[in-house]
Amino acid sequence: MTTPVCTSASDAAVSARQTRPYPSFASYVRARQSVLLRTARSLTANPSDAEDLLQTALAKTYVAWERIEDHRALDGYVRRALLNTRTSQWRKRRVDEFVCDELPEPEPAGGGDDPAERQALRDAMWRAIMKLPARQRAMVVLRYYEDLSEVQTAEVLGVSVGTVKSAVSRALGKLREDPELDVAR
User: Is the pLDDT confidence value at 124 over 70?
Assistant: First the structure.
């Protein structure tokens, strides 16, 4: 154990610590946390970001706790730490943004056409399918919408595989000739 060289200076430090309104960092945080959190929330839009901001400012305050001479001005010190930290975060986010001529957004799935146009094409296709005879319509739906093979389609309908092949071929020919589907070509 070392003895202090200047006993009057160490006695003054002990008495100063005893007269401070917040003898420890933990007691200060417990007493002022809700007020400081409200201040942090006024600086950010997201409550979770406000909590992170307050935590960072309190960590900076903890590091400087022994250097702070007037503990009556702690709220001002922490508010300044909150503001400086938020400004630093804002500046860091701004550096990550780059200006460019074209937006780097991916093309939407499905070739990049308009969803309304895709829906109009689907509607036109169903209208054209509804014009087919019932047997051809059933075979086209089973083959292409239900994704069954020719053999499976023949089994479901109780016909031969050759019948499925010829009927589907004729149905596709009629669909190719349908004037309403010309837009898709």
Answer: yes
Crossing angle of the two packed helices 74-95 and 47-63, in degrees rounded to 10: 120
Query: For residue 5, what are its two tokens?
Result: 């060289």
Return the residue matching tokens 């000739």: 177
What's the mean pLDDT in 68-88?
87
Whole-angstrom Cα distance, residue 26 to residue 134? 81
Range with the lowest mean pLDDT among 3-17, 36-50, 99-113?
3-17
Cα 156-154-143 angle, rounded to 5 deg: 85
φ and ψ of 122, to 5 deg? -60, -45
Distance between CA atoms of residues 42 and 24, nearest Å: 27
Give the mean model confidence (pLDDT) for residues 75-94: 84
pLDDT at residue 159 greater than cutoff 90 = yes
Q: Please, are residues 144 and 167 in contact by the beta-carbon 8 Å criterion?
A: no
Degrees to nearest 5, angle at CA 24 with 89 and 67: 60
Grouping H, G, I as helix, E, B as strand and the rest as coil, residue 162 is helix
